[in-house]
From TrEMBL:
Taxonomic classification: Eukaryota, Viridiplantae, Streptophyta, Embryophyta, Tracheophyta
Record-linked InterPro entries: ARM-like, ARM-type_fold
Listed name of the protein: GED domain-containing protein
Amino acid sequence: MMEDTPSKEEITRVLKVLEALKQASHDLQTHPGPNSAESNSPALKALLELETESDTILSKDPLLSTLSEHLASLKSLFDTLQRSCGHGLRSFLTRRVSTQSISRVAGSIESEIQAWIDRESIDRLMKGLKDPLQIEEGELVGLLSQFEDRVLQGFNRELQDLVLKSKIFCLLERISCDPSCSRKVREQCAFVVSALIRFNKDVFVGQVLMGRLIHGVVSMASWKSMKVLSSLIKSIKSPLVDEIESNGEIPKIISFLDYKDLHLRVVTMDCILEIGYFGRKEAIEAMLREALIKKLVELQRSNLGGDLIDIGMFDDEKERGKGETRFLENHPFASCVARFAVQLEVGEGLRQRERRAFKQEILKTVRNACVSNAEAATIVAEVLWGSSP
């Protein structure tokens, strides 16, 4: 006797069948002509394969029982379309109506299949997240990555309902903050959260701001976690920077500039620039207290630094932009002091008088941190040239 719950292998086989039928249904919406009903068409082959599977697994699923009804309607429409091969007005009208109906039913089939796939994917992912130590790391990372790709396809109300009912966000946050889980799994959980914010910011931002996710992301101390943090700051803006500052995470973020991992330092620099753009007075003060400007001067002085002011030799603005991009690819910390100062100048978090005060503080710190008058003059000129008066 067959078990009530389909095995993993059976679910995998069903998923392959449904994916093939979904693609065929999508094609039918675009080309619902008579040729689509030929016996050797991919749509009909997928249909026959699905009918075979429906006797075992699919017939037990209430959602797929609705799909079976649509498939029966589609077969009936195919039969009608094949019989209307004459040249008279009646045959023409029959073909026209059948073609439109095929397109509509194919759309319903595609939606039903996607809903089933989403439900199964979330169910499998939930089982893995509830007990992450009992599943292979690679398999769980793969499930998370697949779910991230699905979410990034854009807003879908049915998918959002599934996500909210499953309470998957809480599990993603818990694992992101759990040091006993592997870093790869924690990082991928954080990427999924970032994708959900882009999926529907209004629904999921509150859970990020009220939860422990930010601490978990920063505690990973990896370039991937900092990439997630930068993405979250871009999406949530000043409220998230406020949360980062109030939770005391800024010193930890600034400390990543001292790590040996170059990729981490580069992504941290990007994150610092985002904080500079959206951060309010308290966040900027917290960064400056951690000797940020001195660290940036040292990075600009390194082999990976340099001065973008030299790019001004290009007469054409487009060529100058290309030259700057090429230079930054090989010198990620070039003119990093001025780049940070510009973020404060043009950003959203500061009042005008606060911008002026921070600019003066940056200039003063630069003069004290530089090892020569020439170095100080160059960096000061970049800060003044890069920012508006």
